[in-house]
Amino acid sequence: MLNAQALTESFLERLLPVFYHSAEQPDNWRFALDQIKTEMQVGSVVVQKMTLSGNHLRQQWAVRDTVSTEQAESHDCLVNNDENPRLNLNHVKRVLQDTDVYRGDDYDPLRQPEFRALERRLQMIGLGRPIILGVKYSEDSSLCMVLHRRSDDSRAFEDCHAQFLHRLSPHLKQTVSLSEKMGQLQAQSDAFSQCLHQSTTGMVLLDHSGEVRWVNQRAKQLLQDSPHMAVKGAKLRCAVADDQQQLNELIACASLSRQAGERLVGSVGPLWDKPLQLLASPMFTSTASYIALYLAEQDPRLELSVAEVVKLFGLTPAEARLAIALHDGLSINEYADLQGISAGTARIQLKSIFSKLGINRQPELVRLMGASITTRTQHVHNHCR
Length: 385
Known about the structure:
By secondary structure, the protein is of the alpha+beta class. The chain is 48% helix and 22% strand. The strands form three sheets. Strands 2-1-5-4-3 form a five-stranded antiparallel β-sheet, sandwiched between helices. A hairpin with a 2-residue loop joins β8 (229-232) and β9 (235-238). The two termini are 63 Å apart.
């Protein structure tokens, strides 16, 4: 027989580090619930977050012990559905208002056919009487830890089991809350990463030892294609010693700077062989400091989309094609020959473009095209196709 004090104190002390680690590592939930399953001598342990919808409790989130995870499909089919009277407020005698523990004997299955049917379905998956910890989580949600004896185990749950669950209840609420916050932070981090991957500028995040902590998609492509610099062993390495020295000095100066946003520039590679331009800037957070290193190829070739130029600038498709050609360095006559139209027609189209965009000179048009959002994201879309 389990000793009440040992169960509520000694085991809880051993369990809590594993329990709280689940907030950071969701897969750890199974190991924590496996320990509870072994200590409580039960056949199943499930934690659910339930929300109220009409007269029913709906599962919003759930974690299970290892065996129950493997059998989740059959458990959900037979038990975790609208036919479960525990999820129907018309059948449950006590509605969760705060923290409480319910034992199987709290229900009278001999007089309630819905609970008799539930008992038969539980037996089909090898489970018997339950003990349930209910914790009010928010105004419209509750947490439930549901433990079932094995179907061949007729023992009732004792006071020590209820005491343990009561002692565990604040830790359950806190762990779930931390899990949700960690999940939200991870989702935000993933969203920010996706946004930064869309930039046509290469971005590398370094710590103050110069180790690479994060690289966006454009930087990966630049470093993969460049003969001048690459990532090797979590460090940026240059092919030429002089370039390596310049890079080291740039990182060292940024590391010593205490002014957020300070801009330190340099380049690696000869001017005639697609050098990489570098801009290093220190970044500071509440807990750490980093170096943002921005990479760009000199005069990168950017392809503009006719459809996107039409939408961004209100041009016709013919005018958009001409604007793109001039941005790419063609002359009016070269574009006319390429399209099989007269130079006069091309000049009329150019005059219409100037009128629509409120400009007067061809260099202004080239600058407008080069500064558009379609050029700033085009690299990434090409590499992600």
